[in-house]
């Protein structure tokens, strides 16, 4: 009897080890960033890019008191969001894009604390993200509403148990595409957001084109180009911050 129990215990341990190794491997092999995204990590005449602990995009020709933190989507190379981050910075804002452990924002939801502490000159903070990144940003805001002035949800929504509608004066932007594979979940999340949430529905846009990383499993097929969708996201995000 003891021999069988020992064999069963060893078998369970082996299964857990294999599962853990498999999960770590999966987490460290995200959807790859396209060449266009990698090119956006180069500084130019308007934006200084520092890619160390975090990807930091700083406007060169203007000083700013406003910072934007972008949480990347789940199982996506965070560099895929560099083009949007750089263009937001080009409009005069400090933008910080933090990589996540195993490329899942759920494992470092509170990294915004460290970013805010490291940039004391910034007076106004906007936090958001794409997909899982947006959901984790919403969780952070729910617990730290006094630290941020606004939340932007790119093809994302708060968890069912996270009610942001009760947070006074919270500015929220929810922008998504009609061809997103999870569009219905986004739409029905409206009761968990403030009544004055800015809603933007992009006709023909899908989930994956919020970044530069190719095809997203389970996503719809976009009827507009990635460039068009990115320009739309940029325009609405900047308008939300400025207003």
Task: Describe what you observe in this structure.
The chain is an alpha/beta fold and about 240 residues long. It has 2 domains: about 1-30; about 35-240, Alpha/Beta hydrolase fold, catalytic domain (Rossmann fold, 3-Layer(aba) Sandwich), CATH 3.40.50.1820. Helices cover about 35% and strands about 20% of the residues. The protein is built from 7 helices and 8 strands. The chain has helices at about 1-25, 35-40, 80-90, 110-120, 130-145, 185, 225-240; strands at about 45-50, 55-60, 65-70, 95, 125-130, 150-155, 170-175, 200. It has an 8-stranded mixed beta sheet, sandwiched between helices. β1 (about 45-50) and β2 form a beta hairpin. The longest helix is centred in the first third of the chain and has 26 residues, at about 1-25. It is globular and about 50 Å long. The relative contact order is 0.12. The model has no long low-confidence stretch (mean pLDDT about 90).
